[in-house]
Design a protein that fits this description.
- The structure is a homodimer.
- Chain A has helices spanning 19-28, 76-87, 108-111, 113-123, 145-159, 223-228, 247-253; strands spanning 7-11, 33-39, 58-64, 67-72, 94-101, 128-133, 165-171, 180-182, 188-191, 194-198, 204-208, 211-214, 232-238.
- By secondary structure, chain A is an alpha/beta fold.
- In chain A, α1 crosses α5 (145-159) and α2 crosses α4 (113-123).
- Chains A and B meet through α2, α3, α4, β10 and β11 of A and α2, α3, α4, β11 and β13 of B.
Chain lengths: 255, 255
């Protein structure tokens, strides 16, 4: 391993075989030494879940100059934890998740396994970035994302990120992008979340689906607005989730 | 269902059969109409994970005056989403997770399925509280928690919580408590996270374990300090994870 180049630890939640991951590798290859430790099957919607009740394992998939790829039986969060414990010989300079097939803007930051990767990186004190595109199309064209991913990744390598923060970067699906917007997490919620499935014999099952209802669709500061208007949305995310603004009020409750 | 009493939706990540849940029911019964929708097996460390790739189902376990209990094949987050879609006939007045067997202070807020319940409640716009005790002992005595749970729950019912915030309440394991402290999320990280298991034949597996290393052990504002000193720790949590303090700086990167 060439230790003069930045060491970049990569994972995702779509699995080690996904197009978004192989495109990310292509874009990041000129920038650093890449080690990929990604789930051995899709783990979408896994959030920061960890595997606590069974042991996990990992396996080398491919090694070539500058890129080593492992698959892991654990969650996206497990992949980062295990890579840092047993695969990497030094602390990585960056942790990167993606490119996710699906929008991780707005409240999706809470459910996303890709952002689970990034949050884990930030909790470990490593500058971390999640890249996602706002479509689940497995064959989407990622070409327009490349220059942005290279620029953002190089900026973070050069400048770092403050402790306990990371970046959630989402790409629109327009053929070209209008530029970058620094955003806030959109407010709103998922609605119509369950598809009812009635089986032969009459038993009822429920399959998660839904639409996101933006409660501030005209908020030009939000990541949803940026994406809807053709911009690359960069939302800085904190892993210190203390609601500081509520502390003084709560103190008056228990005087 | 008596609609004059507050409707309280309860879930957890230890499963519908856990002692922490049955104790919570006992404590909350005088306060409201309780509907429990809890996982059918343990889902510790599930964070805000959702089940996206298969349908889920739920089943009535027990119904008596004031308390109805369902088990669900999904994650803690799924339980709240599904309950609100198909089980409850109105929006609950509170969502409560717990009582979790295990500490959800500090960075554990990110991994906890109990806090997944609470975060989902907050994302749905419902005042939400997570209760946890700092031991994994399945037979721990919860008696001292009762009056605090009743007081905190009643306060939240009376006063509400601001949008996009919820409470993460952790109990120490001392036989009695010194009172309540309103806290910040402790800073620090998990270390020594993997136990290596070598199987016959030589294959190596890794089982998650670890110790939390507090980077500010003397910070009297932190939830860890409160718990270590015999206080009930209430940490207000935001589900708007935008790192607002970073927005202006990032804007200068992409001028």
């Amino acid at each position: 391993m060439n230790t003069n180049r930045p060491l970049i630890l990569i994972s995702n939640d779509d699995g080690f075989f996904s197009k978004g991951l192989s495109e990310l590798i292509k874009f990041l290859r000129p920038i650093g030494e890449l080690v990929v430790v990604a789930p051995d099957s899709a783990r979408s919607g896994y959030s920061s879940a960890m595997t606590t009740n069974i042991p996990i394992h990992y396996q080398l998939v491919n090694r070539e100059v500058g890129v080593t790829i492992y698959k892991c039986s654990g969650t996206p969060t497990d992949c980062i934890k295990l890579a840092m414990h047993t695969i990497l010989d030094r602390k990585p300079d960056l942790v990167i998740g993606g490119i996710n097939h699906g929008d991780n803007s707005a409240v999706n930051v809470h459910y996303s396994g890709t952002m689970g990767v990034v949050i884990e990186g930030a909790l470990k004190g490593i500058p971390s970035i999640g890249y996602s595109i706002t479509t689940h199309d497995l064959n989407v064209e990622f070409g327009a994302c490349g220059p942005y991913i290279q620029q953002i990744t190089r900026m973070v390598l050069e400048k770092g990120l403050p402790a306990l923060t990371c970046l959630n970067v989402n790409f629109p699906t327009t053929p070209s992008f209008k530029g970058v917007r620094i955003c806030e997490q959109s407010k709103g919620q998922w609605v119509n979340e369950w598809e009812t499935i009635t089986r032969k014999g009459g038993s009822t099952h429920y399959w998660l689906t839904g639409n996101f209802e933006d409660s501030e669709p005209n908020n030009e500061k939000s990541d949803h607005w940026a994406l809807a208007n053709g911009y690359v949305a960069i939302t800085p995310v904190t892993v210190d989730v203390t609601a500081y603004s509520l502390i003084d009020e709560l103190k008056t409750w228990f005087k």
